């Protein structure tokens, strides 16, 4: 459903009106900062990597520039499907009721993007924190696994609550619990009706406030409840509750709820940093099991998570140093003193010359950990971890400390920024913890950032005069594509499989001759065969597909091949110096003529290939030369052809040929 | 070669992928599973176990792990559980023996059965807990199973319980070769316990619930299809069959030993019990099915037998107003059958029976003496009843019969209304059924239309004077109820018109009540039905105005001559009023026309004067004088009788006599006579030209009853004969000054059979015209129509007035064909075309 133009204009007017009246918040603020400008430029180019970087730096994804463009509109206008997807997944607003969504749909370059936009309805984008806040609300009533560490008891009802959340949300509780961290029960005042408590608690736990504060059965009047709420607001220092209680307009209430959730997220993030991250303990791995925390501690942690550093390269060295380390650690009663004050007394950081394997222990809170089904089951089942004990259980998580921090930050606050170097590990770890959302985030990180410095998957056989090619020359591969594909297979991440295939296709000339690549193809083939009898090799099919896309993309769509072909015969000379946006040419035909023209390539099989490989290193130089001379370009096998179309054609054929040759060698049928 | 330099900054994950890991991990898991079964789970680290299963699954050996787990569990069953089960069942042999229904005391049986079930429950619960833990432990594998749409670990391992325990066959029991399947034993025990529960023993319901709950959690296959629960596929059918057997026996026992009332109560209790059982002992899913069984076996199977029971069946319930029984009966039947056909037909036939009974009693009752009903009515009336003659005239007898009939019908109606409200929760189906039966038997009674009209007549004339509006309202309601049932409404209309005409002319009833009644009839039956009645009311009003205007007119003329005679006139529109009132019936007989009735000259002058006045604004109208329905006030002067010194006769007496118009004409004759002269009947007839029958009535009323004997008759006999002579009765005396001489013909009475035939004949004639009109109306609109369609349409058009006879319609069509309103279609004789 796309609105008509006049409807669109009417909608804009309505939206503006509402914003001017202060009814609605402007969700697309005007933004003139250079960063935002860069962001929009990246959106124009379709630069996935840059966009992802900017988004993770926290750029306002819903801002608009002087021409009322939002990133989403730009991206759909310029036809970058992946980018549109990324923007939507990262929280670009596509509220079906909004002018901006309609405009993006209106402007979408093709139907694919248009349908993508239409398929994103409000529920998917409205509130990235929705699951997080729902989880917190559910803690109020959730009984399995038991996570509550404090009971507030009113005369008629007991509330099982969480000190961590209460402290984070209310300054009053924070002070009280700081004074007496081992409180486990709390008598509530008789003077305040229990209904008022219930509402205050729902507010603290981010739940919806009930429409009617007093049920017909309750013994108190609405006024008394209001008074009670008022008193509690003052006492607990949560003045915003009044606004919540008083707002009754639905749209406003929604907006308020969003604000409140965002505020709560801020509070909990801050508290998370203050408690969990500040109190992490770095110890020698061997001594990690000696760390003891009592159950009731000042930061209300009820479990310890352990993550080990990477194994040092030299195992024997760490073995030797272990005994020394043991002697040095100041562990009075076999454990480490606890509490915020005591936590400064980490083991002294005097390391022997050979560094032993280190571990980091994070104090954590069950209410948040159980967002992972892994932890939820762990604490719900009657295994060792859920048994009561004097000291906190230490749970080993199979990943490095930085990755664990990313995971914790995600569990506590829903925010996660994952640097590329940890992405693959995060992928595995979140898979193990059964955190699907985080897993797909890691996959997105890899598939967007992992594609090199410049525009994703750009064809490197084309060289731009702006000099970026010289940067590319010394580029380090940001990822190990073999690992990525293996991870994709291990964990069943379709997105990464596709990404791997695209990646390989875009620089096949670099990989085609590597033995690892051959092994990979072999593995892909065996993967399939073990599943079912089939002749296709999935990975190779994908590579072929993307290869085709890489070379043919520019030639599709115009349907003028024949006409152009005639022109081509009449006036070959005109093609010289045409840039990429020039008229299209019937590629196949061109390739045929060119290919056949080149006797050496067709005739001499292996030799040519070898030659091609050898010359690859020179291609850039040659390319530059070619461009300088304005005399066409060099193909992979080093032959100079008239222009880029010709070179594409030849290159394509060379690569396909190579694939076939490889398959022959591997004795695979495909 | 810079671009070939590809450092790989991403660390490989920590997971150890060595193939050797599998055995090691499996060993960990295996020992953990043993611990779990031994309830040592709290010593196990979830973290480690999960990691082990995770590792295995990650290297794609999940399937191997899956199979190993299955193997382990199977072995565990064989080594640790089955011996215990075997022993358990063998030790509780009595409960096995119950399959053969050998005799053992129910107490023993129950003890043994419960022991067995407790044992099974314990094994099941242990297994279930263990399997939950194992499924938790293998969570990662569970996930990958879900992705590949395989049956989950939990489902499979739970399924093992079914395969290895429940389907385990116990051999060599009781010396029979057939192995006992544990599941059969368990179910048999459960069913036996349930039956004991039904018989009133106290059994452990929670235990039963747990066992059925177990069957609910197990499926036929590991795919866990929702409709393949063991509970649904195996237990429930057996449970239902067993219940069927149980209730069939119980029902027969009830039929032998109890009456319908206790049957109803028992059934209701059983239904509640079974519903409760679905909460306490078996699954709630079975609720509909088990209550279905009870309904089928206890209610439906022998319902007809119970309903027909002498002394407690439906008849007795209805007759004795056993509302509770009927209420239960209704609830039970409503559960089974939405249309409630059994109850409906039974009630309908009962209504018919009772209705026909009323008719029967009517025929057998002798109305020559006032019946109980009549007596009570008269008692209500008070003054009038006291000095009524003991023996009623035949006409009055008929009236009494009509009133009794109506009373009985109304009583019956109110009885069923009460039942409907109290027992059948005003069920619409039942209500319409009863209504239909009422209509049926009322219409079967051929005189119903007349009786209803008579009843209304009687009530309005006699009953309502001096009664409150509420009573009037009550009568009106009853009247409407009855009218609603009538199907030959045109016949009723005819009677009602007749009766209403008399009431209006003789001013016998209160006009506002009459109007109210007609208004209600209009609401019930439609405009066309009441058009004539309303016309009659209108005539009455116009006439009243007319009379006053005429009076004014006379006064303005200042003509003193006619001062002595006042005229109150009713100008009646011919169409609105019944024909016999208008005297047309007489005309058709070719008898002497009423125009020949000779009025005394003074009256004649009055008539002429009025006609002149009337035609002042309405020229061209013809007024016909109808003396048969009018009345006149005459002032009579009786001189004192000579020779009487005392008593009333000694004085001059003046009386005001209210007599019929005919009576007035007759009396006026005697003005011209001198004392002692007399007139013979024939002379009077000759002088007045009053029809013989009317004259007889008039003279009877003036000469026979001693109270009104203004004329002396010779000879003194009760009936008036043509040879009698009449003279002025100077000795007449009365306590009242104003004397109302009753007009015999004004009393509405039931028609004699000949009269009725006459009425029906007239009615049929009218019907023929109405049918004609309907046919022509329809054909004019449709142009062409088949015979059957035409018939249906005619019937539907006329259904508001009467139910036309098919043969009548056919006759009318033929008639219309002959008169060339219609023609038959060529080639299709069963269709007609309208001829314009």
From TrEMBL, chain A:
Pfam families: Ank_2, BTB. One of its GO terms (cellular component) is cytoplasm. ANK repeats lie at residues 67-92. Keywords: ANK repeat, Repeat. Residues 148-213, 362-413 form the BTB domain. InterPro entries: ABTB1 (IPR044515), Ankyrin_rpt (IPR002110), Ankyrin_rpt-contain_sf (IPR036770), BTB/POZ_dom (IPR000210), SKP1/BTB/POZ_sf (IPR011333). Residues 311-351 are annotated as: Disordered. SUPFAM superfamilies: Ankyrin repeat, POZ domain. This is BTB domain-containing protein.
UniProtKB/TrEMBL annotation, chain B:
SUPFAM superfamilies: Cullin homology domain, Cullin repeat-like, Winged helix' DNA-binding domain. Residues 367-393 are annotated as: Disordered. Residues 447-703 form the Cullin family profile domain. The keyword Ubl conjugation applies. GO terms for molecular function: ubiquitin protein ligase binding. The keyword Protein biosynthesis does not apply. InterPro entries: Cullin, Cullin-like_AB, Cullin_homology, Cullin_homology_sf, Cullin_N, Cullin_neddylation_domain, Cullin_repeat-like_dom_sf, WH-like_DNA-bd_sf. Residues 377-390 have a biased composition (Basic and acidic residues). GO terms for biological process: ubiquitin-dependent protein catabolic process. Keywords: Isopeptide bond, Ubl conjugation. Belongs to the cullin family. PANTHER family: CULLIN. This is Cullin. It comes from Triangularia setosa. The lineage of its organism: Eukaryota, Fungi, Dikarya, Ascomycota, Pezizomycotina.
């Amino acid at each position: 459903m796309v609105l008509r133009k006049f409807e669109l204009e009417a909608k804009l007017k309505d939206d503006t009106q509402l914003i001017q009246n202060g009814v609605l918040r402007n969700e697309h603020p005007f933004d003139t900062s250079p960063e935002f400008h860069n962001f929009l430029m990246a959106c124009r180019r379709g630069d996935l990597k840059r966009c992802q970087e900017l988004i993770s730096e926290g750029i306002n994804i819903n801002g608009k520039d002087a021409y009322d463009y939002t990133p989403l509109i730009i991206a759909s206008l310029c036809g970058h499907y992946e980018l549109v997807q990324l923007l939507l997944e990262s929280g670009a607003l596509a509220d079906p009721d909004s002018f901006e969504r309609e405009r993006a749909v209106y402007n979408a370059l093709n139907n694919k993007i248009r349908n993508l936009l239409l398929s994103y309805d409000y529920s998917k984008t409205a509130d990235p924190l929705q699951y997080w806040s729902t989880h917190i609300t559910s803690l109020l009533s959730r009984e399995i696994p038991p996570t509550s560490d404090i009971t507030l008891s009113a005369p008629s009802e007991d509330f099982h609550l969480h000190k961590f959340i209460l402290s984070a949300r209310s300054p009053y509780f924070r002070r009280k619990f700081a004074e007496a961290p081992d409180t486990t029960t709390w008598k509530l005042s008789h003077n305040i009706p229990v209904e008022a408590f219930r509402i205050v608690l729902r507010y603290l736990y981010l739940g919806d406030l009930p429409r009617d504060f007093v049920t017909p059965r309750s013994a108190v009047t609405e006024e008394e409840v209001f008074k009670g709420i008022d008193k509690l607001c003052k006492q607990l220092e949560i003045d915003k509750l009044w606004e919540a209680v008083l707002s009754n307009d639905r749209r406003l209430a929604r907006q308020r709820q969003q604000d409140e959730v965002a505020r709560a997220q801020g509070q909990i993030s801050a508290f998370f940093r203050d408690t969990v991250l500040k109190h992490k303990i770095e110890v020698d791995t061997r001594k990690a099991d000696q760390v003891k925390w009592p159950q009731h501690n000042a930061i209300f942690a009820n479990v310890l998570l352990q993550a080990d550093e990477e194994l040092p390269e030299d195992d024997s060295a760490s073995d030797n140093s272990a005994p020394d380390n043991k002697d040095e650690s100041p562990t009075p009663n076999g454990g480490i003193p606890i509490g915020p004050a005591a936590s400064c007394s980490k083991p002294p950081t005097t390391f022997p010359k050979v560094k032993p394997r280190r571990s980091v222990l994070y104090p954590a809170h069950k209410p948040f950990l159980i967002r992972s089904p892994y932890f939820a089951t762990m604490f719900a089942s009657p295994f060792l971890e859920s048994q009561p004990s004097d000291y906190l259980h230490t749970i080993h998580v199979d990943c490095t400390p930085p990755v664990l921090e990313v995971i914790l930050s995600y569990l506590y606050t829903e925010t996660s920024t994952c640097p590329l170097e940890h992405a693959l590990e995060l992928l595995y770890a979140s898979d193990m913890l059964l955190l699907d959302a985080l897993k797909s985030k890691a996959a997105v990180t890899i598939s967007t950032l992992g594609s090199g410095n410049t525009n994703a998957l750009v064809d490197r056989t084309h060289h731009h005069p702006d000099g970026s090619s010289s940067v590319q020359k010394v580029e380090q591969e940001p990822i190990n594509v073999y690992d990525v594909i293996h991870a994709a297979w291990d964990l069943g991440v379709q997105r990464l499989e596709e990404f791997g295939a695209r990646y390989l296709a875009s620089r096949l000339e670099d990989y085609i001759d590597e033995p690892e690549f051959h092994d990979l193809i072999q593995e892909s083939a065996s993967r399939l065969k073990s599943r079912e009898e089939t002749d296709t090799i999935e990975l190779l099919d994908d590579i072929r597909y993307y290869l085709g896309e890489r070379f043919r993309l520019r030639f599709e769509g115009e349907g003028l091949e024949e006409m152009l072909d005639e022109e081509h015969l009449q006036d070959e000379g005109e093609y010289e110096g045409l840039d990429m946006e020039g008229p299209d040419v019937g590629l196949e035909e061109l390739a045929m003529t060119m290919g056949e023209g080149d006797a050496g390539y067709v005739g001499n099989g292996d030799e040519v290939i070898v030659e091609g490989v050898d010359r690859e290193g020179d291609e850039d130089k040659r390319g530059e030369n070619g461009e300088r001379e304005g005399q066409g370009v060099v193909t992979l096998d080093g032959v100079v052809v008239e222009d880029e179309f010709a070179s594409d054609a030849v290159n394509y054929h060379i690569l396909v040929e190579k694939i076939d040759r490889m398959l022959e060698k591997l004795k695979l049928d495909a | 070669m810079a671009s070939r330099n590809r450092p790989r900054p991403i660390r490989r994950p920590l997971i150890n992928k060595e193939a050797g890991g599998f055995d090691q991990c499996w060993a960990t898991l295996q020992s953990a599973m043993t611990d779990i079964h031994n309830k040592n789970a709290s010593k196990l680290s979830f973290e480690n176990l999960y990691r082990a299963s995770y590792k295995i699954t990650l290297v794609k050996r999940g399937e191997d792990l899956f199979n190993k787990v299955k193997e382990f569990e199977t072995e565990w069953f064989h080594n640790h559980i089955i011996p215990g089960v075997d022993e358990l069942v063998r030790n509780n042999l009595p409960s096995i023996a119950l399959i053969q229904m050998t005799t053992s005391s129910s107490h023993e049986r129950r003890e043994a059965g419960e022991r067995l079930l407790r044992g099974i429950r314990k094994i099941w619960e242990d297994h279930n807990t263990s399997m939950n833990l194992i499924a938790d432990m293998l969570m990662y594998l569970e996930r990958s199973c879900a992705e590949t749409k395989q049956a989950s670990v939990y489902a499979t391992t739970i399924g093992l319980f079914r395969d290895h325990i429940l389907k385990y066959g116990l051999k060599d029991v009781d010396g029979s070769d057939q192995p006992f399947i544990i599941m059969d034993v368990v179910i048999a025990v459960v069913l036996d316990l349930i039956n004991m529960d039904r018989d009133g023993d106290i059994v452990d319901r929670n235990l039963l619930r747990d066992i059925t709950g177990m069957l609910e959690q197990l499926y036929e296959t590991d795919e866990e299809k929702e409709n393949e629960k063991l509970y649904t596929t195996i237990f429930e059918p057996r449970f239902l069959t067993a219940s069927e057997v149980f209730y069939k026996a119980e029902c027969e026992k009830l039929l032998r030993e109890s009456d319908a009332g206790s049957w109803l109560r028992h059934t209701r209790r059983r239904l509640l019990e079974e519903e409760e059982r679905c909460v306490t002992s078996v699954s709630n899913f079975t609720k509909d099915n088990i209550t279905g069984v009870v309904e089928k076996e206890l209610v439906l199977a022998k319902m007809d037998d119970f309903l027909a029971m002498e002394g407690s069946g439906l008849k007795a319930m209805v007759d004795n107003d056993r509302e509770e029984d009927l209420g239960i009966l209704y609830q039970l039947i409503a559960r089974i059958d939405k249309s409630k056909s059994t109850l409906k037909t039974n009630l309908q036939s009962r209504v018919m029976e009772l209705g026909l009974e009323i008719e029967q009693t009517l025929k057998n009752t002798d109305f020559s003496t006032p019946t109980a009903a009549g007596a009570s009515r008269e008692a209500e009336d008070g003054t009038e009843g006291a000095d009524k003659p003991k023996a009623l005239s035949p006409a009055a007898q008929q009236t009494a019969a009509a009133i009794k009939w109506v009373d009985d019908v109304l009583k019956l109606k109110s009885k069923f209304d009460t039942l409907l409200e109290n027992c059948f929760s005003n069920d619409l189906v039942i209500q319409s059924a009863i209504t239909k039966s009422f209509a049926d038997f009322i219409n079967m009674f051929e005189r119903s239309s007349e009786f209803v009209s008579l009843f209304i007549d009687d009530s309005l004339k006699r009953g309502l004077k001096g009664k409150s509006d509420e009573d009037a309202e009550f009568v009106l309601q009853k009247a409407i109820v009855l009218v609603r049932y009538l199907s030959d409404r045109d016949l009723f209309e005819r009677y009602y018109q007749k009766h209403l005409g008399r009431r209006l002319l003789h001013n016998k009833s209160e006009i506002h009540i009459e109007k109210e009644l007609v208004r209600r009839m209009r609401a019930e039956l439609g405009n066309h039905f009441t058009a004539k009645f309303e016309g009659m009311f209108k005539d009455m009003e116009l006439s009243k105005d007319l009379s006053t205007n005429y009076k004014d007119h006379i006064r303005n003329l200042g003509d003193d001559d006619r001062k002595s005679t006042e005229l109150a006139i009713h100008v009646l529109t011919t169409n609105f009023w019944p024909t016999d009132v208008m005297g047309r019936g007489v005309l058709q007989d070719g008898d002497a026309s009423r125009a020949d009735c000779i009025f005394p000259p003074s009256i004649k002058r009055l008539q002429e004067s009025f006609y002149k006045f009337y035609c002042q604004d309405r020229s061209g109208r013809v007024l016909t004088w109808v003396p048969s329905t009018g009345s006149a006030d005459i002032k009579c002067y009786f001189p004192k009788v000579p020779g009487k010194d005392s008593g009333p006769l000694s004085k001059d007496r003046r009386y005001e006599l209210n007599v019929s118009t005919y009576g007035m004409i007759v009396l006026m004759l005697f003005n011209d006579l001198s004392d002692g002269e007399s007139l013979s009947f024939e002379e009077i007839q000759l002088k007045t030209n009053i029809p013989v029958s009317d004259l007889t009535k008039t003279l009877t009323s003036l000469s026979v009853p001693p109270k009104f004997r203004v004329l002396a008759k010779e000879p003194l006999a009760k009936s008036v004969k043509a040879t009698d002579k009449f003279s002025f009765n100077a000795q007449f005396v009365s306590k009242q000054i104003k004397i109302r001489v009753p007009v015999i013909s004004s009393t509405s009475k039931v028609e004699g059979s000949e009269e009725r035939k006459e009425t029906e004949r007239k009615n049929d004639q009218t019907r023929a015209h109405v049918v004609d009109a309907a046919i022509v109306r329809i054909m004019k609109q449709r142009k062409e129509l088949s015979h059957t369609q035409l018939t249906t349409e005619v019937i539907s058009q006329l259904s508001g007035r009467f139910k036309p006879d098919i043969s009548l319609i056919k006759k009318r069509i033929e008639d219309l064909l002959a008169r060339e309103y219609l023609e038959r279609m060529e080639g299709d004789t069963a269709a007609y075309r309208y001829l314009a």
